[in-house]
Amino acid sequence: MTTGEAVFTETIERDQRVEPADWMPDGYRRTMIRQIAQHAHSEIIGMQPEGEWITRAPTLRRKAILLAKVQDEAGHGLYLYSAAETLGADRGDLTRRLIEGRQKYSSIFNYPTHSFADVGVIGWLVDGAAICNQVPLCRSSFGPYARAMIRICKEESFHQRQGYELLLNMMSGTPAQRDMVQDSVNRWWWPSLMMFGPPDADSPNTAQSMAWKIKRHTNDELRQRFVDMTVPQAEALGVTLPDPALRWNAEREHYDFGQPDWDELRRVISGDGPLNRQRLARRRQADEDGAWVREAAAAHAARRSGVPA
Ligand SMILES: [Fe+2]
Ligand SMILES: [Fe+2]
């Protein structure tokens, strides 16, 4: 074992952080770049389903909240691309991989939004599931990722609360508003459970990621935690979750629940979800529309540093 390897192994064993200049196995670097890039892409693509509702928010207050939330997601993408760059990745290259369909993002953002209740349900369930996934990542072994995650989680917590508060408001409104919320919950519940990834038995990379302490819990453990956390919130809200198998198991002290349609998850991940093409086309268009801004910024920076562009 080389000195670098020994230091790396000891850092992981002692639960300390690996920093960008430290020696790390190639597989660790590759895994970290892929995971951080996919996470960054998810934040940026995730701006689309809710961004569509900014011009249609019912009040000025809701518009201000939604604008702030969607801007936060852009910020999360930026922190994460920066964290990937500390490993030697190039942000422009990562963006190209995304828009050419060579790198993935969270399956959840390929589902359509049908009503303003979806803004509330996305905050409650989708940001809620993201929090379950991301809180343990604050202790991830790669320093820049773990530190970015601390700030991101604080903002995700605001996202979840604004969603839940919006839903509480709608549930104390008219029967039509309550129906909108229930319809939205029915559509988002199963895709939210899929956000934790395939069952552990079909997740071959989990063991290595846990050994490297990139991941702290398996997909199924996090999914269970999310269900246990969400059921009482659904009861308080007065909505039902669309799963006939959902019930408290006193012996396990957890909720039992049904399995999502894993074939659907495979289809959505492989590019064949309801809106994959539209989401990527929009991202590609934004990239093309923004090219002149990037060129102008680079020319300006070059002029200031005295080096011609
Ligand atoms: Fe986010
Ligand atoms: Fe969020």
Write structural notes for this entry.
66% of the residues lie in helices and 2% in strands. It has helices at residues 3-13, 26-45, 47-51, 60-85, 91-99, 117-134, 143-171, 175-194, 206-211, 219-237, 262-272, 276-289, 291-305; strands at 247-249, 254-256. The radius of gyration is 21 Å and the shape is globular. The site of one fe (ii) ion has 5 residues, from helix 6 and helix 7. One fe (ii) ion is lined by residues 73, 127, 130, 156, 159.
What portion of residues is helical?
A: 55-70%
* Bound ligands, named by name, code or SMILES: fe (ii) ion
Count of extended strands: 2
In what range is the share of β-strand residues? under 5%
The whole-number mean of residue pLDDT values reads: 95
Which blocks of ≥5 consecutive residues have pLDDT under 50? Answer: none
Rg from Cα: 21 Å
Query: Count of helices?
Result: 13
Q: Strand order across the biggest sheet? A: 1-2
Shape: globular
Structural class: mainly alpha
Major sheet details: 2 strands, antiparallel
* Helix and strand pattern: HHHHHHHHHHEEHHH
Terminal Cα span: 45 Å
InterPro entries: Aromatic_CoA_ox/epox (IPR052703), Ferritin-like (IPR012347), Ferritin-like_SF (IPR009078), PaaA (IPR011881), PaaA_PaaC (IPR007814)
EC number: 1.14.13.149
Pfam family, one: PaaA_PaaC
Keywords: Oxidoreductase
